[in-house]
Amino acid sequence: MKTKGIFLSWIIVKDVPAAIKFYSEVVGLELKEYHKEFGWAELKGPEGSLLGIGQEDPQNPITAGSNAVVTVTVEDIEDAKRHFNNKGAKLVGETIEIPGHVKLQTFVDVDGNNFQLVQDLT
Q1: Which of 26, 49, 97, 119 has its CA 20 to 30 Å from the CA of residue 79?
Q2: pLDDT tens by residue, 81-112
Q3: DSSP conformation class of 84
Q4: Considering only CA atoms, which of 96, 16, 18 is closest in space to residue 53?
């Protein structure tokens, strides 16, 4: 498995437009992209860090206010999943693909904190 780095952290919110307004006007981040159809936005800081904002969804066990998710970008998500399985790490749910954008696989650390493996498809 080849890890490329940690480039994005994200949170779940109840209202994406309200969160965009808060993180833009209060925190001072700049809106990079907003995909209303996916309930997803990304804001960037002046040094290039990214904060993702995802719409709360009953199919996702992570709820608004409960967790920030750090993503670990990998070269090949299937290779990473095999590596995690071989090491006894706990993968959660199925791999999610946003066509032409990313593949995502949730995993938990030894304390139950949620993280995601991410493969960039752009």
Answers
A1: 49
A2: 999 999 888 999 999 999 999 999 998 887 67
A3: H
A4: 16
Coil, strand or helix: which one is 91? strand
Q: In the structure, what pLDDT confidence band is assigned to residue 22 with cuts at 50, 70 and 90?
A: confident
Both structure tokens of 102? 């990313």
Write out the two tokens for 14.
Answer: 């109840």
**Mean pLDDT, residues 55-69 taken together:** 83
User: What are the C-alpha distances in Å from 98 to residues 31, 39, 41, 105?
Assistant: 20, 12, 14, 12
- 15 and 87 in contact (C-beta within 8 Å)? no
Q: Which residue has the tokens 């709360």?
A: 56
- With CA atoms as reference, report the closest residue to 13 among 65, 69, 70, 71: 65
Six token digits for residue 116: 């995601």
